[in-house]
Amino acid sequence: xxxxxxxxxxxxxxxxxxxxxxxxxxxxxxxxxxxxxxxxxxxxxxxxxxxxxxxxxxxxxxxxxxxxxxxxxxxxxxxxxxxxxxxxxxxxxxxxxxxxxxxxxxxxxxxxxxxxxxxxxxxxxxxxxxxxxxxxxxxxxxxxxxxxxxxxxxxxxxxxxxxxxxxxxxxxxxxxxxxxxxxxxxxxxxxxxxxxxxxxxxxxxxxxxxxxxxxxxxxxxxxxxxxxxxxxxxxxxxxxxxxxxxxxxxxxxxxxxxxxxxxxxxxxxxxxxxxxxxxxxxxxxxxxxxxxxxxxxxxxxxxxxxxxxxxxxxxxxxxxxxxxxxxxxxxxxxxxxxxxxxxxxxxxxxxxxxxxxxxxxxxxxxxxxxxxxxxxxxxxxxxxxxxxxxxxxxxxxxxxxxxxxxxxxxxxxxxxx
Length: 417
Ligand SMILES: [Fe+2]
Description:
17 helices; globular
């Protein structure tokens, strides 16, 4: 039988069934594990969790006080990190022990988080791929994997809201289906954060984003992978991914909110969406959020039949679409991602081109940018980073530029590296 105990009574050797308190605030990626490491014990005691559910049938208590005292006296163990972990920023995740499930709380620099986001995306991609392949074979969805992945993505968004969003936008044609799920998950969490949702609703938004296109696993592969525009008949088959996904989620025991996001993320405020042509008032807030995040990621991703839109241009265009999105939610979305999202190509008043490197601390209009090209001389210039919000900054953004018009090779390297 599971027992709830105050955190002060927690001891090494106990099997933690569930940590009380906020899932976003405690520093562990896994909720259940055998507590064997004094560092984990100290971390749980110090992170503000009040109580813990333990499973006495799976643990064996050891004398914590003597162990803690021994650890305090013992010299630090020699550290011989694996080659892969040696260069990781502090707090970077590895796999295996309970202590290694700790994620790094607190803000990090955007450069650090972009490095982390690259690794999270790589791992997330293969997990989503496995999940969709299992779903295609009719297997149930593994809720445990989903929760872990959403938590990992949420922790990254919490540390640096835009890093993972920007990395997940970059995807190849082959990656699209998997990375789109990861990107929409991250966008939903960023939006939920902007809207001040509580932890549980934020989690549901993330899971809903990750699962919104699960029904694509039930679509015929020749239609799903067709490298071009779909015919009307094929499009009508693809539209059924909403109902198929909802059915799969329902039978896997998913929360009704998650089912609703999968079912209604293609509805439009003016009632012309699918599958149910719901009027705006009958589309749930989370499904309306799903519609915004889904379209933004789709239009800013490179597809076989179209170039990716510049993120800043996508914001501008989507704002003009009448009847598609909830306007209030769209402005929350812009606040969470930025008018000039990281990675956008922009033209400055000084007749230079720049890439957006980080959001502005004070205003969405004054991000940190990296200039690299002069429009006057039509030549590359030495790369220079400028904080447009700095008191001595004299330059400003005039508007977004279409990268496909310029064809600069390796533009991503300017903000990714
Ligand atoms: Fe969809």
